[in-house]
């Protein structure tokens, strides 16, 4: 009895198998322990002795003497959580403060980077002060006091008297539901010989995964709003982890961000509980019109059609990745009501006319009217709603959703396609721009009618490119990796893999290596000249310290590398059926995989001379289609196929396939 139970447990894919070990593990940014220590002393100012001891060992003491003496400790990468240290000696006058920053540009003994309110004076967060008389012995930040995201900690003596401290460490609070933060079920590795760092793509894949981990927080540890330095607000009426927008700032559900971050969480971590909890929160926000909120508590913003659509689309993605039909059934009445709300905006043109009051999006300008991004999202919502309606057993409704989606696609092409530009316009007004968001989403969500149209858009989007990535026509002086993540996918779908890699190298190559940032997690956005003054004139009030350095909406390359360079896609729930169709993208080889409840899906391919060879591993009992580029027949497990089509249907298991390029 006991033995068979043991066998069942071992065989269960729900155990959460780990990805195979390999050289890629060196690029996993996640720490081996949930308690981390600083890795170096970055700056010493004034009379500070023994600072190096804080890095080296838990019993070595450091002494800060004299008012305003300080030490800056570098934790080596983005971290977040509750600090502990020992106060070994203090007089009745000794005092000190902590200040924190993600960017080394904003290290300052008098204030932290801003995490709640953007102000031009850059000092709304200030410092966290510990006043006299200090108790000697261990000191630990409360949950409220914790810093959600930082790389540099400044400890400042605020009195003339000496202060002796030791044993500083940080208890990481993100990913509260995981014991081993490095236990990724997915992996990715590919050399990038064309770039200054051959390991760039592998590092970036892991940087995206780690960014999502830092944005996965306990639902009771959101940022208080209205603003105060207190990370003990409720992020919504659920217990457990939620997937939020940023590690340091806001720490609130913004469901549009899931259009990227949920896929990253799936491809790297197979961790969909934080998305499920987030969806649960957002469905509690429905009002009598059917509308849902634009953000979760405590901010509770309202007024975004696009973000409502993303909630509905993410409901589908959550179902696709997990097969959790019970959850779909639980929210189905609210889901259909929210979709009716969005559809009620469709007018006689066949497109939705976004009311100004619902035109908020990723902070871009001008989202009202027959907006391209929203109508692309509405199309995707209806197509996926049809699948969900089928899953809950309502085929009549599924057919009606599909019929409505067809009308939107036709109107989208009739009203918005600009053949002379080879791009969609943002709306049907005479002075409309050609947007980065609407065009990227149109390709991603199949609003196009031919591969030639996809290729035109892929080409057309390059007109916005700079050395650091596309300058978005939708918002002045802005490079926006959230939308960049959709554009990367659009190039892969258009078959322009080398262009997708080029874009990744420009935009994410900048973010991952710039010494303005944390070199581990990914920036929310930046300006044309690479500065941190993202949205300086669009809501961030000239406060570059407000910009987030760990923003899960910027992690698009992680799932894109898994879904397009490895080419692994689920075509039905959990990958019961799948397709494997790698886009070679000018790379010599790639390998990696991802996991669902059915098991592990792994791909390894390489180009040698004119031969492409691919090995794959998929769970027993599944089936799918492998499509390889090239010419001539495929050789599958040493048998030459009779047709010269590049596609073959296969049962789950291990296979080796080759084709001539
Ligand atoms: C740790 O610090 C203590 C106190 O400075 C010192 O005696 C000890 O040698 C250090 N241990 C290591 C391993 O460096
Ligand atoms: C603690 O500090 C006081 C005042 O500076 C000093 O008299 C005392 O010797 C110190 N004790 C230790 C254990 O360092
Ligand atoms: C970043 O690198 C540049 C060029 O190497 C250097 O001038 C600058 O001081 C560095 N900035 C920081 C904050 O380290
Ligand atoms: C939340 O944290 C703040 C700042 O640390 C603290 O003042 C407040 O008492 C905390 N609230 C609760 C309910 O714990
Ligand atoms: C420490 O210095 C700051 C400004 O440099 C000053 O405002 C404060 O009064 C000083 N504190 C003590 C105890 O000397
Ligand atoms: C150092 O701090 C850690 C974490 O708070 C604690 O577990 C450990 O006992 C402390 N060690 C010493 C020597 O104080
Ligand atoms: C299908 O959905 C429609 C619209 O919500 C509803 O009126 C109808 O009763 C449903 N049919 C079934 C079989 O559930
Ligand atoms: C399809 O669109 C029409 C017109 O906008 C709307 O009245 C109808 O409710 C939609 N059907 C479904 C199933 O959403
Ligand atoms: C794109 O939409 C067309 C119908 O407009 C459909 O025939 C085609 O299969 C879709 N492509 C994908 C990849 O879903
Ligand atoms: C766009 O941003 C640049 C750089 O901040 C600024 O010089 C310019 O005036 C802005 N243009 C508009 C139209 O706001
Ligand atoms: C970069 O752009 C920002 C925002 O437009 C501006 O404030 C800053 O002065 C620029 N920096 C340089 C070095 O040109």
Please outline the helices and strands.
Blueprint: H1 2-11, E1 35-36, E2 40-49, H2 51-56, E3 61-90, E4 96-101, E5 128-130, E6 137-140, E7 147-157, E8 163-172, E9 187-189, H3 200-214, E10 216-218, E11 241-243, H4 258-269, H5 273-283, H6 305-322, H7 325-343, H8 372-391, H9 395-416, E12 417-418, E13 423-424, H10 436-444, H11 451-461, E14 465-466, E15 469-470, H12 481-493, H13 497-513, H14 557-565, E16 568-570, E17 577-580, E18 589-596, E19 599-608, E20 611-627, E21 631-636, E22 639-640, E23 647-660
Parallel strand pairs: 17-20
Antiparallel strand pairs: 1-8, 2-3, 3-6, 3-7, 3-8, 4-5, 4-7, 9-18, 10-11, 12-13, 14-15, 16-17, 18-19, 19-20, 20-23, 21-22, 21-23
Helix pairs in contact: 3-4, 3-13, 3-14, 4-6, 4-14, 5-6, 6-7, 6-8, 7-8, 8-9, 8-10, 10-11, 10-12, 11-12, 12-13, 12-14
The structure holds 2-acetamido-2-deoxy-beta-D-glucopyranose (NAG) (11 copies).
One 2-acetamido-2-deoxy-beta-D-glucopyranose (NAG) binds next to loops.
